[in-house]
Design brief:
Chain B: Residues 817-845 are annotated as: Disordered. The structure holds two protein chains of two kinds. By secondary structure, chain A is mainly alpha-helical. Chain A has a domain at 28-77. Chain A has four helices and no strands. In chain B, strands 91-92-93-1-94 form a five-stranded mixed sheet. Classes of the chains: A mainly alpha, B mainly beta. At the A-B interface, helix 2, helix 3 and helix 4 of A face helix 1 and strand 24 of B.
Chain lengths: 87, 1213
Amino acid sequence: MQASDRFNINSQLEHLQAKYVGTGHADLSRFEWAVNIQRDCYASYVGHYPILGYFAIAENESIGRERYNFMQKMLLPCGLPPEREDD
Amino acid sequence: MYLYSLTLQRATGIVSAINGSFSGGKTQEIVVARGKLLELLRPDDNGKIQTLLSVEIFGAIRSLAQFRLTGAQKDYIVVGSDSGRIVILDYNKEKNVFDKIHQETFGKSGCRRIVPGQYLAIDPKGRAVMIGACEKQKLVYVLNRDTAARLTISSPLEAHKSHTLVYSICGVDCGFDNPIFAAIELDYSEADQDSTGQAASEAQKHLTFYELDLGLNHVSRKWSEAVDNGANLLVTVPGGGDGPSGVLVCAENFVIYKNQGHPDVRAVIPRRADLPAERGVLIVSAAMHKQKAMFFFLLQTEYGDIFKVTLDHDNDRVTELKIKYFDTIAVTASMCVLKSGHLFAASEFGNHGFYQFQGIGDEADVESSSASLMETEEGFQPVFFQPRRLKNLLRIDQIESLMPIMDMKVINLFEEETPQIFTLCGRGPRSSLRMLRPGLAISEMAVSELPGEPSAVWTVKKNVTDEFDAYIVVSFSNATLVLSIGETVEEVSDTGFLDSTPSLAVSLIGDDSLMQVHPNGIRHIREDGRINEWRTPGKRTIAKVGSNRLQVVIALSGGEIVYFEVDTTGQLIEVDKHEMSGDVACLDIAPVPEGRQRSRFLAVGSYDNTIRILSLDPEDGMQILSVQSVSSAPESLLFLEVQASIGGEDGADHPASLFLNAGLQNGVLFRTVVDMVTGQLSDSRSRFLGLRAPKLFSIIVRGKRAMLCLSSRPWLGYIHQGHFLLTPLSYETLEYAASFASDQCAEGVVAVAGSALRVFTIERLGETFNETVIPLRYTPRKFVLQPKRKLLVIIESDQGAFTAEEREAAKKECFEAAGTGENENGNVDQMENGGDEDKDDPLSDEHYGYPKAESDKWVSCIRVLDPKTASTTCLLELQDNEAAFSICTVNFHDKEYGTLLAVGTAKGLQFWPRRTLAAGFIHIYRFVDEGRSLELLHKTQVEGVPTALCQFQGRLLAGIGNVLRLYDLGKRRLLRKCENKLFPNTIVSIQTYRDRIYVGDIQESFHYCKYRRDENQLYIFADDSVPRWLTASYHIDFDTMAGADKFGNVYFVRLPQDVSDEIEEDPTGGKIKWEQGKLNGAPNKMEEIVQFHVGDVVTCLQKASLIPGGGECLIYGTVMGSLGALLAFTSRDDVDFFSHLEMYMRQEYPPLCGRDHMGYRSAYFPVKDVIDGDLCEQFPTLPLDLQRKIADELDRTPGEILKKLEEARNKII
């Protein structure tokens, strides 16, 4: 790679995409976008204890169980991915 | 509009707790994170938990860990927060502060998916720390010591793995080999790609060991092995000679021992016998206890049962893992086993417990073991147990927690001087109604009746060196009574006190003699029994007295002041005289300063509304040093000396200072600083205390002098963590008081009121509120006031629980099976929980929780409660899975029934997999039996859950899903009159004012509606442009609403004045415009005028005034159990002053855990027009030079800033 390449927009984007999970790109599908948003949400719920408490009251579960459930849902937050259309 | 935000009650819930020795040495301390607070707690010798330090960190603490460098005596604290930084703190015992040792930035701020802060793990030998995020990132920092034995931290080493979720991390104890960290990881990359679902179903959690190579300074994945897919928590197993090393993996239903090169050892977690089959058992908190020869683990399940886990091992080989039922306590967020044999249990919801170990579970009990694990076709064979009463633990203290506050109302139901705050707190069987009153709680030690009405009381010691008081002297209008303090308190007559006259003062004089001042003279009783009398000249009588240990000043009627001193032989000698211009209203002498012969200052209050300071220096000849005029004649004076402090347990550092306090006849307490050299008065503050002129007394609180002010209610002025606090006591009106020290009660107060003598102590210093608790049955949701009768109507509901009858039947069955049959608690009406936990209930629900039912089962009740008698006058349990969600009182316009109660319910509501319900209902109840009971009038079926109800123009407005509907009362059901279906999601709140309806949507903030009676139409004329997930709302004025959202923001929206006018003037009420619409919403948009991130989910809002004559402020309650207030500033100057103070505080004193203050308060939306009082109030905790620096920038003195802060607080509470 040449030195000048480091500053062009594509390689900068690639760098961002590698560094920050969830950085979008031009061909991002609706599903990928939603999955990313959902995972961000669950991570935010797990990080904010009062919100976990709020959910725990609503569902009458313990906070520990809520946290576990949210972490589990991060695997497939929006259900199965759609079938890929062949390019 | 600018608001001043102040937390009134700090958060009481606990996110995480760790224990260790943070001040060094042998003392055991607990550090707890309460969301945005970091606190240091210490159990005292009596087993009571004391709060030593509490710091607002303006960030969200997510994880805590403690570590100790090898050979050190002291633990450090590591904090994982939302700041994108790792912070290492050290508790500074001398100054009583947390010192920030290191702060290393590694990422963006905020609770993000890949920014570490969620998990912390420590190498058991204190050589490294790992900080992890929910996904991908894990960083390892190497901890070491430099040559000066200071802690050093390395640059971060990465242990990242992308597309990988992390469930838990922990350190592995491998002695002094390279540190190893373990993590439960799940790789999702394939599941995201595979549309058949096969990859997702095959996704496997792995236990991965990361080794930190200290030589190469590098972290590598050392070992990874598949682990049970229900794994959620890792616990370190001791190693390096103390145990087999490795980790315990807690998974749903199992505990598995794992180590590299070791086969899994697995045992099932015993299940409660009544647990539905589809529910798993998850471990939610764990604690390890290690002694020299043994170690064990305590694991708590999500139902509250604690299991003791032991490992049988032969060097490094674990042969058996045993899980034995230990005890059941409320579900905890963290448990700490202290070396002193105590267990600190930080409850998820409700009060925290402090337990003493009675045993360590050595007796036989239900046990599951890896050796007896049976695998059948349906999986592993479960082991069942029945929870029982506490056997190994004994609760010795509990710390009150309001978490979660579900609803709140500020009303003066009891017609007291200040309103009471009624809060609905807790969850399930631990729920309660708590009545909060501003003030300190006191505990009454004794009350005894006296013959006649006493006018004054004193306590005296026999000798200066005595620890305890010897006599209580009570003065009546014509006599004096002496009581001696010993085993019992009894009357004595051989003390030398004159008993046939009233007394004006009684005190210890010199080293060991007593003085009684009566209207006709001074009686000086020497230690050997000799009595010297000084008689007043002529017919004059003594009117007022002031004295300290070596000086006495009396004021004779007519205004002459006579000054006495105790000479070296202990003789009381008349030294000087001074003629005042008129009668003396009150006088006081400052206490003798340490190492001095006399105090220099005498304060004299006169009826001409002045206070004078006279010099008692022999050279000065009672010269007047300064004069202060006050608003009303002074009634009582008191010098209060504040000792110099450099921090320590009483708070921040401040220089020694002398305050003169005056109680004025108009009920105001006037406080001013006395210059210790010149006697000049400066920096005066005043505060209205009550309807009577305050009488001031000096008492001892926590070994320091404090001031008791007796007005129409008693107040205590004391210094707490650097702040001077003036707080009311929750006690009746007192006449006269004195401090009291005896064997049974080291720091008490003796007081007279009416004809009774009372002895009490003051508890829980530093708290703003004291509370009265009334237990409830299920999670309280909402409550309303029945205004005429002053009764509260509460709706309570719980998902996934059995009804009272079913629970009773199940209990009976279980006791019959157990053969005890001693269940006396068969009466359903008596089934309130809490309150008296010691009662002979073999299975109190408060401890054990309600048995779990299927998630579509609901229990619910409607309760009418009389708060005065704390009794439930009516309790209706709803049947058939119906649960109540909304409540309001309504007066229909035909007035046939008067006030009715409307309750919105849902039947068979389920949230997962989709929200479904069998039916919704609106119940209409009539109040009977003077409002104490309810009678169902009728029940109307609706298509959704009625989540909001409100009265409107003699009709009932109901929010049912996204429909707003107007109902009228019919004979057999409610009659639909009008509806609007255009709301975006679910209506959660309705408030009305005149013809406007303010509707709150669960996801889309407020909508302003109008009802046109002539056309019978409801339409939305304005809405908000920002999506807000409303959790609470309150109507402020015609155009303004206050709301709070799920993410912890409080905000105000206002309809612009011109738009509002236009709508009011428009004959069609803006309807034409409405028909056109704008941007898929209403034609007009509201403006956000106030925005503030509280950092905690606000669940209730109310506008109220907490002090008589005080301005109204917006009070809020939160999930974490804190209460706060937002007060509107009334002057532009104050706004300028506080915004500058806030700015300098931000610059000079950034928050402890590394979050930027402005960034935190603007976490979701930029903060607008709110000044953070909590930050400003940290000003007194700053070092003195910094205080001076900030004060200089503001062109003021530090004293003036403190006064401003005090004033601002006094306007609120």
